[in-house]
Structures are given as C-alpha cells and as structure tokens.
C-alpha cells in the first residue's frame, strides 16, 4: 500500500492550484527568484517521473532534477509533495480519453458502463501509479469534476436514485482499480523473477506434480490444471477483467430491473 494518498495537503492552497486561482491580492509577495516555469510544467514532469518509476521514485528533488532547477525552486510553484500528488491525479483525469456521447443516439446502458470501465483501465495502464494512489478524498479539481460528470451520465435514466447512481459508479471503479492493481502485481512478479508467468509455472511444474496429490485435492488439481492451461499461467489480466466486468454488469442489471419493476 502506498503511503501517499490524495487530499493530504492544505485544502485551500490545493484548490487554488487545481483551479489555477491567483493568490489573494492581500497575500504577501512570494520570495525567491523570478518564476521561469509553470505549475503545469512541474506537474507534467512529476507525472513523467511517476510513470517511469512509480510513486516510490517521485520526490521533489527528482522532479527538480528533471526540470533542471533546484528543489527549493519547486516550492515557489507547489507547496509540497501532497499538493503535487493532487495536481498530478487531477491532470491525469483531465487528460484521460473519454468517449464522446454527443450528437449520437444513446448506447445501451451496458455498453456505456463498460466504456467507463475500459476508460479507467486504460488510464491505469497509461499511468500505473493512479491505481496505487488511494483517492478516498479526491482532489476537487476540473479533472475530477469532469470525469465524475461524464461517468455519472452512463447511469442516468436507468431508474436509480442519485445515491444509487453514485454507489453504482463507485462499485464499478473499485472493481477496475482492484483489477488494475492485480495486473500491476503480475507485471512486477515478472520483472522481479525475470520470467514470464508461463515460464515460472513451467519451471515449477515438476515440483508441483510431485506435491499435488490429485486424489487428496481433486478440485484443486482439476480446476487449477484447466485454468493454467487456458491462461498459460496462473493469471490472465484481460480475462479477469472481462469476466469480472460481466459479473459487475449483471449485478447492476438486476438492480436496474428491480427498480423498473417497482
């Protein structure tokens, strides 16, 4: 679990930065050298650093080196790492690809919700740190608000009340986040072992065959063999996503049908 989380910085200053509000007129002048960068440049450098090395690699010093400035220079743009994380997350949300639903007939609700899920999975694949950053207090910036508005629309007109719409979206996004994190774990295991999942299981197959008694563990032997052969390993991220998403949609479908029948 990452130690960093969203919403840990100064709320007032974070909102000013998220919406690029100027400092109050009565605020004391900022000390330090004349600014030659921008908040956007700092955020983009931080995103690039986190994309390549994860949140563990994200430090104010590392961002400063990437920009060719001293660490103290960054503090004239962003107060601390906590506020920087909020800016990064909101920017990632603002820039993520989203289906344009304007000017066309509404797609079936399952297709709309599936599109939301895939948009978020692709976001996590493009910026893996997003899946590892707890966001129970999301930064209330333009990216978060635009994303929320877009995704809520997938559930509009289905007979759910506003609280259920919010809960349904949360349920969907929690599933995507969990799936994305499992995919990251599988990738990390491959890097750490210098072996693909299929190679790892092939190397351990002789030992497994010795210790796994099919008579004592018949279900484990049968199901494990079938799944391993189908996935060429213990885990297939795309299959897990498709299977899980279908079950999420089935569950939401039962709720929607129950509201229509009442």
UniProtKB/TrEMBL annotation:
Q: Which residues form the HTH tetR-type domain?
A: 36-96
Task: List the Pfam families hit by this protein, alphabetically.
Answer: TetR_C_1, TetR_N
Q: Does the keyword Protease apply?
A: no
DNA-binding region(s) in UniProt? 59-78
Q: Which UniProt keywords apply?
A: DNA-binding, Transcription, Transcription regulation
Which Gene3D superfamilies does this UniProt record tie to the protein? Homeodomain-like, Tetracycline Repressor, domain 2
**Do the record's keywords include Transcription?**
yes
* Tree of life domain: Bacteria
UniProt cross-references to InterPro entries, sorted A to Z: Homeodomain-like_sf, HTH-type_TetR-like_transc_reg, HTH_TetR, Repressor_TetR_C, Tet_transcr_reg_TetR-rel_C_sf
- Enumerate the SUPFAM superfamilies for this protein: Homeodomain-like, Tetracyclin repressor-like, C-terminal domain
The name on file for this protein is TetR/AcrR family transcriptional regulator
